[in-house]
Amino acid sequence: MIRRLPRVLRNAFLSPGARRFGPRFSFDYLRFAWQSARRWGSIEPGTLRLLGRRIAYPNRSHALFLVHELFVECAYAFDAPSPAPRVIDAGANIGLAVLFFKALYPEARITAYEPDAGTFAILERNVVGNGLAGVELVNAAVGERAGTATFYTAAGGPAGGIGASLDPAWGGVEGRAVRVVRLSEGLDGPVDLLKLDVEGAEYGVVRELVASGRLALVREAVIECHGVASEAGGVPALVRELAEAGLAVAEASAAPVPPGAVGPVLRARRAAMVGLEPAR
Predict the structure, then answer these.
(1) 188-233: per-residue pLDDT in tens?
(2) E strands within the chain?
(3) Contact call for residues 167 and 110 (beta carbons, < 8 A)
(4) Which residues are paired to 249 by β-bridges?
(5) How far apart are CA 186 and CA 177, in angstroms?
(6) Are 138 and 112 in contact (CB under 8 A)?
(7) Model pTM score
């Protein structure tokens, strides 16, 4: 803990999360960091308290990673055009991003997709148990084609794995059938933020949104990219598709990503929503 103390203090008091959420966040973060330091590397389940919410997690190490990405670095922060933005969370996992969006915008209307049954149960517990209104939970993966597919996870791993995927190269060796839906079918109006963290399925999801014309409804997208052997065009093709749909990609490299490597996080914004009413 002593070696990590300077970083912990920076995260607690000088990070984007500290500036955005204030002393309450700082106190909660210090408590969780102290507990984690005492059991460093622990993969045990538990709960944490953050910004007035009680959050169940199946793996402490994964929870610490997600807290840092979402609440310390505020990786999915965005400027909404109204107090009640429309958010799509594809790859919701245990719901920490949902809680982050609700901390940013308490009136946000969110649809969260999570295919794994065990992980979905924890997601539901975290949403319902914290009384989060305006959140629709969908127990399904998003993909290019609707139906069923094999969802891969690490062998013997607990629910909530952060690498689970429809692609065995990313997900692991244990597979189970899950329902797959087309994301376009859930887009019935303007979307202020699309968060897409689906471990390699992002290419097919974007192609389907382009083909259906529904990507035109998205004001801003944050997409975590992965190297997938079957996607010959990779990240450069994805960036071109977004640009052709009117979304300008910022702060990201369009260089190819080798199979099995984590690529850039693309943040794509639309300058104007021609012909669409603002989200309400």
Answers:
(1) 899 999 999 998 899 999 999 999 999 999 999 999 999 888 898 9
(2) 46-50, 53-57, 86-90, 109-113, 135-138, 141-142, 147-153, 174-181, 193-196, 220-226, 247-250, 262-270
(3) no
(4) 268
(5) 21
(6) yes
(7) 0.91
